[in-house]
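Renewal narrative, Specific Aim 1. Our central claim is that a sequence can be written position by position from structural information alone. The example that follows is taken directly from our test logs and has not been curated for this report. It begins with the structure tokens describing the chain, in the order in which they were read.
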């Protein structure tokens, strides 16, 4: 088990060893969240590295990553634990004719028949130390589930009616993410440290590309980042995230491209733009205009 980082610099270094390039502000909230044992709430556009930070932190700290992927209709049972009905039925069948029905009843609602889901798993002691609990894309669930989470995260415990309350001996490291398709309730946010994960600056995105697509030549990497940064300022239905920058670089590398051209861009736009309207807008003269700007600006003064 790796000890928790003792400074903001140490957080930056720890993440960097895993190829994650954090801004100073993000490294600061991560540090505080670890130090104060508070859940971290990360909000931001898709593809800005919110999910990745939880994965990176788990790997870097040698902790187990437990992920609760949220979706519409997610309920407490699916998040905490469910009874294994099939196994219970078999036990009942096997015990048919047995006289001690009360004993059977009690036995059916023990841990042997419980299917553990992420929230319960996160409250259990783990060999490498408290796990990293990633509650991903919270904005996809509904308010009742948020209220339920609020309770679970306040005391780091969950209650299973038939079994009782299970409390984490050591609180998990909790990271919640939201793509902000709706506002998450204030009460839940108040329990957490909050950080808006923005698109990275040119320099930081270039560092990310160096870390994630090191094979790309410097000139090409700079062109890619500069072009994507410009694209984000256009009026698009869906702006490209960092994930798209990396994907695009990999596509260009696979095509042996050494420098951007309007043709190359229009042939590979699908790697960065995922809506036909956006692609159409950018094809042809618009892509050329942006690229001309990029080439002009990247020429050293
Ligand atoms: N700061 C960063 N450093 C390194 N890689 C990053 C960074 N931000 C994003 N990425 C890359 O972008 C990809 C998408 O990030 P992800 O965490 O899935 O985005 P989100 O959860 O915010 O939608 C990741 O797989 C990772 O490779
Ligand atoms: Mg995500």
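The sequence written for that structure reads:
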């Amino acid at each position: 088990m790796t000890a928790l980082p003792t400074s903001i610099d140490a957080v930056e270094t720890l993440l960097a060893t895993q190829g994650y390039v954090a801004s100073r502000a993000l490294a600061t909230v991560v540090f505080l969240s670890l130090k104060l044992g508070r859940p971290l709430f990360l909000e931001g556009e898709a593809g800005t590295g919110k999910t990745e930070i939880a994965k990176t932190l788990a790997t870097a700290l040698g902790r187990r990553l437990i992920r609760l992927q949220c979706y519409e209709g997610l309920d407490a049972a699916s998040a905490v634990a469910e009874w294994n009905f099939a196994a219970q039925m078999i036990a009942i069948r096997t015990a048919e004719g047995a006289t001690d029905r009360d004993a059977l009843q009690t036995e059916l609602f023990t841990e042997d028949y419980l299917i553990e889901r992420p929230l319960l798993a996160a409250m259990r002691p783990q060999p490498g130390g408290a796990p990293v609990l990633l509650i991903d894309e919270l904005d996809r669930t509904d308010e009742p589930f948020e209220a339920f989470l609020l309770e679970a995260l306040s005391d780091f415990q969950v209650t299973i009616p038939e079994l009782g309350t299970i409390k984490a001996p050591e609180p998990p490291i909790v990271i919640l993410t939201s793509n902000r398709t709706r506002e998450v309730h204030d009460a839940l946010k108040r329990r957490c440290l909050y950080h808006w994960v923005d698109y990275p600056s040119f320099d930081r995105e270039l560092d990310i590309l160096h870390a994630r697509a090191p094979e790309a030549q410097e000139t090409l990497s700079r062109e890619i980042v500069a072009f994507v940064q410009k694209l984000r300022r256009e009026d698009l239905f869906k702006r490209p995230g960092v994930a798209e920058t990396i994907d695009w670089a990999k596509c260009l590398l696979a095509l042996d491209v050494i420098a951007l051209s309007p043709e190359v861009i229009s042939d590979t736009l699908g790697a960065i733009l995922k809506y036909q309207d956006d692609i159409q807008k950018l094809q042809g003269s618009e892509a050329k205009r942006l690229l001309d700007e990029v080439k002009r600006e990247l020429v050293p003064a």
